[in-house]
């Protein structure tokens, strides 16, 4: 070991080591503690929550709060809406993005560079600034307050990032593989469906995971183009809980926990995809 | 790949859906928002050309100028406090201390939870009566400091601003990915020369990520700071006295008032401020290179 050759004073080294762990633990507690507090609060009675210490545990866990959130607030319906919109938008998104990624990755054609610039700019545009045109366009298409409007919008705003993610994977497939299929008489579509698509599976899964998470967490546009209670997604729902449950704190917290659980579980399950999606998206953007 | 004639048709068909969506939801909206920013339009009657009056009105409105200032502060804090914190954590976790995977997973949680859920959680934490923060202060004997954090004109904006500064997971992970690509022979050579981990971070890691992931993160964080909406919308709705407003919240309120001209004008200002930030940050990072 060459560590003994360190010029840093041993005391400084110990201090830095302690500081390191203080930082590491602090950031973890800062993230976890409020979430744990939220879960514990969601299991209290309102009396316990209002009168007791914020750190006390509930005498009896009130699972009833979760029943209230699901039944009274109609959370079940909102969860289904979010799943439906997310799944359909993600499906269309990865189909369209795979097709464009295939063209950009495997062929040199006129306008390819311009398309590339357009997609890059698409990742950087602050989408929130486009609320007015999105509202008008969705209205003009007759899609205001419809599942279709949300699906189309979510599918479209995720196209640049999904295309980049899938293209990255397609770029790594050797040309020889496709050329072999070409010589065997495989056409454009044949090569796409039978050769490239199966080999791009991991890129597509990454893009799909990322797109679904974006849909699941999206609030601004859902709030903008949905007015009917029946079509509300879970995020829009949370905003209404805060009014609906203005005095029933514990049920509101239960509702928030229910909305967070799928994100956390999905994240733990698809951790690598989500992280690689977010980092490569960022690095390329 | 060589393209036969029939393939060219197929290629166009394959590109078309993506191109159409890009035109419809990126190109046309940007042009549209610029066009409407010069018009007076309530969404029902025909839009009328309004010269630059929307912009003049914006800058006379204290709520708007305050929003711009808030966003600029937000972007600076994100780029120059949050990202450096994230960088420190990225360097620490890249050395793979015990349990680093667990910590990486935990730090990233806020990134997968929706902004709305997080804001609602923090509204509960800041709450005057049963909030976690006041409870914590009382437990450690600082009960005098307990207050209505989001209602008090002095603490509202700092409270809204500060809580996500310590959510560093996203930028940390981006920088960790970059650090992992650094050739390990640099560190081996430095270790042989007797450089400590700390010195290695200062002289090897930071210079090597400066123009790649660090630049990316500062840019991303600033842009995120500029487009803030959900947080303030849920936490304070811009109150008290517009002290916590942001450009996007202002724009949203103008839309609710069916004042599409001014809403679009504030969107244009947002885009301009965003571009100015991106260009300036790039200049700062590239300027240092000539030292």
Can you offer a commentary on this structure?
The complex is a heterodimer of chains A (285) and B (291). The longest helix of chain A has 32 residues. Chain A is built from 15 helices and no strands. In chain A, helix 4 packs parallel to helix 7. The two termini of chain A are 41 Å apart. Chain A has 2 domains: 34 residues; 207 residues, Orthogonal Bundle (MetI-like fold). Chain A is an all-alpha fold. The relative contact order of chain A is 0.14. Chain B is mainly alpha-helical and 291 residues long. Chain B has a single domain, classed as MetI-like (MetI-like fold, Orthogonal Bundle), CATH 1.10.3720.10. Chain B is built from 13 helices and 2 strands; from the N terminus they run αββαααααααααααα. A two-stranded antiparallel ribbon of chain B has the order 1-2. In chain B, a hairpin with a 7-residue loop joins strand 1 and strand 2. Chain B is globular and about 75 Å long. Chain B starts with a helix and ends with a helix. Classes of the chains: A mainly alpha (285), B mainly alpha (291). At the A-B interface, helix 1, helix 4, helix 5, helix 6 and helix 7 of A face helix 1, helix 3, helix 4, helix 5 and helix 6 of B.
Topology of this structure?
The complex is a heterodimer of chains A (285) and B (291).
Chain A: H1 10-41, H2 46-51, H3 64-71, H4 75-106, H5 112-124, H6 131-140, H7 147-157, H8 159-171, H9 175-183, H10 188-199, H11 201-217, H12 220-225, H13 234-244, H14 249-269, H15 271-284
Helix pairs in contact in A: 3-14, 4-7, 4-8, 4-11, 5-8, 8-11, 9-10, 11-15, 13-14
Chain B: H1 5-36, E1 39-40, E2 48-49, H2 53-60, H3 62-94, H4 100-112, H5 115-126, H6 132-139, H7 156-162, H8 169-179, H9 184-192, H10 197-226, H11 230-235, H12 247-256, H13 260-287
Antiparallel strand pairs in B: 1-2
């Amino acid at each position: 070991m060459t560590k003994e050759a360190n010029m840093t004073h041993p005391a400084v080294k110990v201090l830095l080591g302690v500081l390191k762990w203080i930082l590491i633990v602090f950031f973890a507690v800062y993230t976890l503690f409020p979430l744990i507090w939220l879960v514990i609060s969601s299991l209290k009675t309102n009396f316990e929550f209002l009168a007791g210490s914020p750190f006390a545990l509930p005498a009896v866990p009130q699972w009833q709060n979760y029943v209230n959130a699901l039944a009274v607030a109609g959370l079940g319906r909102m969860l289904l809406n979010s799943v439906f919109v997310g799944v359909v938008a993600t499906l269309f998104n990865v189909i369209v993005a795979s097709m464009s990624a295939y063209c950009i990755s495997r062929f040199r054609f006129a306008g390819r560079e311009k398309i590339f610039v357009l997609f890059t700019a698409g990742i950087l545009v602050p989408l929130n600034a486009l609320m007015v045109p999105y509202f008008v366009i969705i209205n003009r298409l007759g899609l205001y307050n419809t599942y279709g409007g949300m699906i189309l919008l979510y599918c479209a705003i995720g196209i640049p990032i999904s295309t980049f993610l899938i293209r990255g994977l397609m770029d790594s497939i050797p040309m020889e593989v496709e050329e072999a299929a070409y010589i065997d008489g495989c056409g454009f579509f044949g090569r796409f469906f039978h050769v490239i698509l199966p080999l791009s599976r991991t890129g597509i899964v990454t893009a799909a995971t990322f797109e679904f998470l974006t849909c699941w967490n999206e609030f601004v546009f859902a709030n903008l183009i949905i007015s009917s209670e029946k079509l509300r997604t879970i995020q829009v729902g949370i905003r209404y809980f805060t009014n609906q449950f203005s005095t029933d704190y514990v049920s509101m917290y239960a509702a928030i926990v229910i909305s967070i659980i799928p994100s956390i579980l999905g994240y733990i399950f698809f951790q690598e995809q989500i992280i690689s999606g977010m980092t490569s998206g960022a690095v390329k953007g | 790949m060589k393209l036969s004639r029939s393939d060219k048709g197929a290629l166009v068909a394959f590109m078309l859906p993506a191109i159409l969506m890009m035109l419809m939801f990126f190109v046309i909206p940007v042009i549209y928002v610029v066009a409407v920013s010069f018009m007076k339009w309530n969404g029902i009657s025909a839009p009328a050309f309004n010269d630059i009056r929307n912009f003049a009105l914006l800058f006379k409105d204290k709520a708007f100028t305050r929003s711009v200032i808030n966003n600029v502060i937000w972007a600076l804090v994100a780029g120059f406090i949050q990202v450096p914190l994230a960088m420190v954590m990225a360097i620490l976790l890249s050395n793979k201390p015990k349990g680093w995977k667990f910590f990486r997973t935990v730090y990233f949680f806020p990134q997968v939870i929706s902004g709305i859920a997080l804001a609602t959680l923090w509204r509960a934490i800041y709450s005057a009566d049963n909030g976690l923060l006041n409870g914590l202060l009382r437990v450690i004997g600082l009960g005098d400091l307990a207050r209505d954090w989001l209602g008090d004109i002095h603490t509202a904006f700092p409270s809204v601003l500060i809580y996500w500064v310590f959510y560093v997971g996203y930028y940390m992970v981006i920088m960790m990915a970059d650090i992992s690509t650094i050739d390990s022979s640099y560190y081996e050579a430095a270790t042989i020369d007797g450089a400590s981990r700390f010195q290695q971070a200062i002289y090897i890691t930071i210079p090597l990520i400066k123009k790649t992931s660090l630049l990316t993160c500062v840019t991303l964080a600033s842009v995120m700071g500029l487009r803030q909406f959900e947080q303030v919308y849920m936490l304070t709705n811009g109150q008290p006295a517009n002290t916590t407003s942001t450009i996007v919240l202002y724009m949203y309120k103008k839309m609710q008032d069916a004042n599409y001209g001014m809403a679009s004008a504030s969107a244009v200002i947002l885009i301009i401020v965003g571009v100015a930030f991106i260009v300036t940050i790039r200049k700062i990072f590239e300027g240092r290179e000539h030292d």
